[in-house]
User: What shape does this take?
Amino acid sequence: MTAPSLDTLRGLLSSVSPTTDWSSVGPDTSLEEAGLDSLDKATFVMKLEEETGREIPDDAYERLDTMAEIQTYLAT
Amino acid sequence: MTGPETGIEAIGLHIPASGRDVLDRLGEFDLDAAFVRDKTGFVRTARLDEGQDTSDLAVAACRDLETRHGVDLNGVDCLVVVTQTPDRGGIPHTSAIVQHKLGLASHVACFDIGLACSGYVYGLSVIRAFMAANGIQRGLLVTADPYSKVMDEGDRNTAILFGDGAAATLIGPDPVWRIGQMSFGTKGSGNRAITLDETGMLSMNGRAVFTFCASAVPPAIRAHLDKTGLTLPDLDRVLLHQGSRYIVDAIRTALDLPPQVVPFGAAETGNTVSSSLPLLLAECDPARLGHVLLCGFGAGMSWGTTLLTSTVAKGPTR
Assistant: This one.
């Protein structure tokens, strides 16, 4: 599996939460601490599932909180 | 006899005086005010008044029909209550208790419908068909679903969203809203997204609910419009179940409609489940709005869509 690039993830994050400058958020930074609230996270992951064709189950959804974690999860 | 013009004549409402100010609970739930105002949208959630039950909410909404619209409830021959939180766990059906409290005659047919946020649209279809099949001229469709009865007030997933309220819709031969054909759907695989847990308390998977709403509702509305021959620009209002401001905005954006066409009107009540659509519809002036689409969606997962057409519109003005 090919994981989405950081640019792809940042683009998705910008589309759902445009008030945060996601270009300055590092791969290991907590998305929640960077400003992704619970509702925007639901939208972000829905778009991510559409983009990748991968379903992210609830247990992984709760766990994944950085772009690096998302990339690692989707690479397996 | 029930004729083709049978539709919505009037709507009575009741929101209890009691409630919770969500902005006073920000610390309790680790929330900020902007999230409440701009995302969930509910700054207050209504709660049943002390000593009240579901039937009392329903009765109050029916009394509002009498006092505000001058309706004579003695002219009603059937009474349908949509609820998933009935009095006494559902035995007997709440509609029988409401009939008794209203003092209606014994010939009045009464039954309940166990649906949540899609319940108003289903209820309109069921009561109209029931009236037509049995030659009933006027009937009452009551929605009353006080989720606070089964809610943990400390549960952030539900306590800041759901509010208690009721609506009583008079169905009869002199409607202001003609009821069109309906479309329905069910995704039973999501039946655990909103449910009672093993302790009997309300549990909600917010992510699952949002994903269902955002993915299923826009295509359902488009598919329904295809059946009617209308297009989105023909609609004066699209009334969506008020699950949250965020859900309403997401669906509105997917449909590419302006905010004034797709209102959010539940900031002071909370998500009143099956009553959210009639509460919104009651704010629509049939003299000014020609076509109003209703879409209810939620627990089940279940959805229903219909188109109302004003019988008294003088021309649409947005």
Observations:
- The longest helix of chain A spans residues 38-52.
- DSSP finds five helices and no strands in chain A.
- The two ends of chain A are 6 Å apart (CA to CA).
